[in-house]
Every structure is written in C-alpha cells, then in structure tokens.
Amino acid sequence: MQTFRVYQSLWAMERRRPDGQEWTLEQKLSMIRDAGFDGAGVRFADVQYARTVTAFLREHGMSWQAQCYPRTVDDLKPIIEHVQELGADHINLQADVRPYTLQECIPYIEGWRRLAEDAGIALHIETHRDRMTTDLLFTLHLLDRFPDLRLTADLSHYVVGREFAWPISTENHALMHRIIDNAWGFHGRVASREQIQLQLAFKQHRQWVELFMGWWEYGFRSWMARAGDGAVLTFLCELGPPEYAMTGADGYELSDRWEEAQLMMRMVRALWARCISEQAIAPARRA
Predict the structure, then answer these.
(1) Is 66 helix (H, G, I), strand (E, B) or coil?
(2) What is the pLDDT of residue 246?
(3) Which domain holds residue 66?
(4) How many alpha carbons lie under 13 Å from residue 152 in its C-beta half-sphere?
(5) What SUPFAM superfamilies does the database record attribute to this sequence (predicted)?
(6) 130: left (phi > 0), else alpha (psi -120 to 50), else beta?
(7) Distance between CA atoms of 144 and 202, rounded to whole angstroms?
(8) Quick check: 98 and 124 in contact, CB under 8 A?
(9) What is the reported pTM?
C-alpha cells in the first residue's frame, strides 16, 4: 500500500512581523503536531537543531525530511552522517551551485547520488530558483542526461521563472509534466507568473490555485503508477515568510499563512484520497 504524508515547513513557521513577535521552536512543533501534519521539513546543516526537532517529532510518532544546501559534493557527507544518526524518509537537496553548462553539473549529480546510494538513503534534488535547477529548460536537459533523477517538484519557481502567460499553453503544460514525471516529492506553494506566493483563498487567485491542484493531481497519479507498493510520497506545505509572503504598507502580511498551510494540507489530502478512490474503482470497471 502506498502512503501519502503531508509535512509543514519549519521555515514557513517564521513570522518576521514588524513587531518582532515569533513563536518559540517548541510552540511551532506543537502547532504542527496539533494541526495534524504528519511531520516537518527539517534543516539538517545545524545538527543540534536537527536533534532537537527530530526528538520531538519521533516522540509524537511523526516523521521528517532532511533539507540541505550543499555547494560541493563533500558538503553532503556530514548531512548523510546526521541522517544516519537521526533518520529521515529522504534527503531533500537544494544544489547551491550555478554551473553554466550541463557538463559542469555532472560531477555534482554523480557525486551526490553516489554518496546517498552508498549510504542507502533516498535523495531528491529540489527544483528551485538560484540553484542548479533554477531554469526549467536547463533542468530538462539534466533529465535528458539523468533520466532517473529523482526530483522534489516545487513548481512555483518555474511559473515565476518562465513567466508563463495565462492561459497556460499546451507546450508549457508538457514541459511541466516532464518535471512532474520525475517528482518523488512535492513542495507546496501556488504562484502566478509575477508572484512566487499567492494567497489561497483570494478570489482573484482561483485560476492559479486550480492550475496547481491540477498539476499536483497529475503528479500524484504519475507517482502512483511508477512507485512500488509500500512507497511514501511526501508533500511539504511551504508558504514562506516575507518577502515570499505579500505584505501591506504596514509590513504585516495580507493573509494568515498558518491558516493557509492547514488549508493546503486539507486540500492535498482530499486530492490524494480522490486519486486513491478512483484508482481502486478503475480495475473494477475494467473487470
């Protein structure tokens, strides 16, 4: 049986309000637990921080992904050691390098994958601006070279980075589907061609919310078809603080991101449940 886990980003729990009020780490973790998330995305570069967070999550029967931002192949080694100590369902890697050519990328990808494979740890490369995967077309060239490369698909970056016009063209849908077909996890945020993070409940953003829900549905179905029995798909709600979040003239956000994160959790769980239900019905219809 395949499993779906919805995580909350701890980075997304930062408030960055003009009055300086922030939740403590214990408050953030308790809120994530009490809201019903399955776990969290945890920064593993700071091992003491990772130990504190994972101890709480483990105590409460939750799980996590290990997030890292290596600039060299060797930068991944201590992250792997931390994962071997603390556990994680996978490493989410943002490649903090910006090679000019595909050829320059090969030693990084091969090195990181070799280290993770030798350690027996699942490794996903995140699609993200200002990283190796900053450009959609360049990332597709990476997939041409590494067709089995496992991605964490944060689709918001490509909508902004390529400034997709509305309505989204058939050609651009096809390009995004190629990314999604290599996705083994998702980071959740809704973007438009000009904004990296839209408020989910604002009426003027409905078409973009529906677009992303459609891509995630395609992604869930694609993953179900290629992942084995017992596999786990993770979806990290990652609604970031300002300046990802829009603010008014007073510096305060235009919406409640914590409420939106919980809304997103409910939305994607309902989407997953529908995909599972329709998957179960399809064989019966063929019979």
Answers:
(1) strand
(2) 96
(3) 3-286
(4) 26
(5) Xylose isomerase-like (SSF51658)
(6) left
(7) 38
(8) no
(9) 0.96
What would the pLDDT profile of 116-172 be if each residue is shown by its tens digit?
A: 999 999 999 999 999 999 999 999 999 999 999 999 999 999 999 999 999 999 999
* Spans of the chain, pLDDT less than 50: 284, 286-287
Q: What are 235's strand-pairing partners?
A: 6, 186
Instruction: Tell the residue number behind the tokens 């556990």, with chain if given.
Output: 87
Single-letter residue type at 61: G
- The pair of structure tokens assigned to 103 is 């050829």
Helix%, strand%, coil% for the chain, nearest 5: 50, 15, 40
Instruction: List phi, psi (to 5°) of 47.
Output: -65, -35
* CATH code of residue 220: 3.20.20.150
Query: b/e per residue, 89-126, with b = 16+ CB within 10 A?
Result: bbbbbbbeeeeeeeeebeebbeebbebbeebebbbbbb
Q: Which helix (H) or strand (E) holds 233?
A: strand 232-237
Alpha carbon 59 to its chain centroid, in Å, reads: 24
Contact 106, 145 (CB under 8 A): yes
Let me know: does 109 contact 149? Beta carbons within 8 Å.
Answer: yes
